[in-house]
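Quarterly update from the structural biology core.
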Amino acid sequence: MFERFTKGARAVVTGAVTVAEREGAPVVTEEHLLLALLDAEGTKAAFALRALGATDRRASLEEALAAARRRGGLSKADTDALAGLGIDVTEIVARVEEAHGPGALADDREDRTRRSGRRPFTREAKGVLEQSLRVCLGRREKTIGDEHLLLALTARPGVVAETLADHGVTYAAVEGTLGRSQSRNQTPGRGRSEGQG
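Predicted structure, tokenized:
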């Protein structure tokens, strides 16, 4: 599948590995893919994220993701559901951190032995890569660009999609932004402009 990735999409995947290494994370997660997308420049996903204001709110996105990590990866929907059952996740996190230290529920910081020496992708991160292929095929496009990775992140349930949605970056918003960008790049009588795919 990786051979179908554009240069920009490959840069995001390798960028996610770099982000994971920089953070000392033993695995590459969906969050790392998002952070690599936010680092991208001059690509379709970078345009969409900028147009939707996500790049200007990067610090807020990172804070929301860190808060979810601190809750052991629980989304707001998860914590709301547990609250409906009388379980206060904030109180549980506070007690665990009191006993074991800050970030005790964020298990992604623990180093694990890897035979290959490479950081493996989590099941969820691999799911984003697979979803990007489905998005690409659904849009009847031949190559997987970084915009497909962004759309895949917004389409998969979980903390990253929830955080993006809270910041105005939904599947529909990204698709609408990409559609506006594409229509500006087309001229009457000519198909897609070079580089569209």
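Confidence is low (pLDDT under 50) at residues 108-116, 187-197.
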